[in-house]
């Protein structure tokens, strides 16, 4: 599969926390953790499991962080 996003970070799934409709999937990417919020249906459809390989695909127009 080819995609237009250029920020693809390959890693290993270290945790999946399912909520009522949304799951938080945590990937270990070279010692850093990236968390994605996706639907429970997507987790099931992709066959995601702890210890499995996955990639975080980042396509965002902006990222904001603020502190006082």
Automatic annotation (TrEMBL):
Keyword Transcription: no
One Pfam family named in its UniProt record: TOBE
Organism superkingdom: Bacteria
Gene3D superfamilies reported for this sequence: 2.40.50.100
Keyword Repressor recorded: no
Domain Mop: 2-67
GO biological process terms held by the UniProt record: molybdate ion transport
InterPro entries in the record: Mo/tungstate-bd_C_term_dom, Mop_domain, Transp-assoc_OB_typ1
UniProt keyword terms in alphabetical order: Molybdenum
Name under which the protein is recorded: Transporter
Protein source organism: Segnochrobactrum spirostomi
